[in-house]
């Protein structure tokens, strides 16, 4: 009669457990990979959209993009929303802020870059929709109405050195009664940017952005 070696069974069991742990770890997405400020590159965008249930006006999304040499300084309104060009440092601060809420908000993440669709396809849910996209993937969360102004007030200080972006961000928050004090000198941006709607220049920006980043 042949007897099995208990040590072999022990080692085989440990090997199976180790393989299971490795596979399980690989199957679990890195929850904060997209929301890691150290991963920020030129491909990162952050979009915020909030359509209160009691609002009759449409609040077009704000889309923050990292500015580089061939992008405009203005903040054009497009079919995707209003584009706000910020520095890489500011984008890192935005992602760092969102990362602070990772445990509080139910983030849905994917390793596929799901670039924003035009505003007319966005479904208003009564929650604020936060979307972060890069060539690394996509992260998304919904913010309850009672948390919206707290989040917006946390966002304003990031743009204190960028008066144009600060103006449009505060104006957006004031659209649903977050009551930020807007410097009256910034009103000029309303007139400078409101007429900008260059669809030819901006309609395919996410496609071009994806291609350009992948070439670098």
Q: Key features?
A:
216 residues; alpha+beta; seven-stranded mixed sheet; 38% helix
Tell me about this structure:
With 216 residues, this protein is of the alpha+beta class. The chain is 38% helix and 16% strand. The protein has helices at residues 6-27, 88-100, 145-155, 163-174, 187-194, 199-202, 205-215, and strands at 45-49, 62-66, 77-78, 81-86, 108-110, 128-134, 137-143. It is globular and about 40 Å long. Mean pLDDT is 77; it is low at 13-31.
Give the helix level as a range of percent.
25-40%
- Shape call: globular
Number of helices: 7
H/E topology pattern: HEEEEHEEEHHHHH
The average pLDDT value, as a whole number, equals 77
The spatial strand order of the largest sheet comes to 3-4-2-1-6-7-5
Number of strands: 7
N-to-C CA distance: 66 Å
